Each structure stands twice: as structure tokens, then as C-alpha cells.
Amino acid sequence: MTRVYSHPDPSITHLVQNALRSAGIDAVVQGERHGAAMGEVPPIAAWSEVWVGDGAALEAARAVVAEVTREPAETPSPWTCALCGETVEGQFGACWSCGNPQPEG
After folding, report:
1. From start to end of 21-82, where are the E strands?
2. Which domain holds residue 78?
């Protein structure tokens, strides 16, 4: 088996494990209870880890982990609706107030 990811928060390692399982890759989380040893062991030794079997699925697993853990893209700038003048957050493609689509460009 090969470790493909580790994190101090077990909920994050379980998120990665679930993404791998959704992709058809068997994965296990180990060390999720090691956080109780914080202060007694080096911090990284208390992190939980995601492990997958070696072989053909290993590269696919690394790709899934990279996708799940990548930093989100920067949020687009807010825009002003040409129809009603409302300021709309950049991630929305239409005005929340009147439904007018976001201008292109």
C-alpha cells in the first residue's frame, strides 16, 4: 500500500477517501485517532493518512487527490446588472434580483 495523502484533520482525509471511492479506487484512512497524541509526538506523526493499493490505480488515485485538494480558483469580480443596477457576486451568471444574465466579457 502507498500513502497518497495526509492531513491533521481526519474529516479532510475522509473527504479524500470518499472521493477516491467515488472514482472506484479502494482507499483506507489510517491514524485518524492519532490526534489525541498531539504534544506527545511530533505534530506530523499525529496526522491521519489516506492509503491506496499499489499498482495501476496509484496514478489515478494521485490525480483524484490532486483534484480534490487543489486550491479553488480565484472568485471573479462582482458585476453590476445592466437591467436593475444590483451588484452581483462574480461567481453568479445571472442577477439574483431580476434574472438578467451576466454580460459577456
Report:
1. 27-30, 48-52, 79-80
2. 74-105
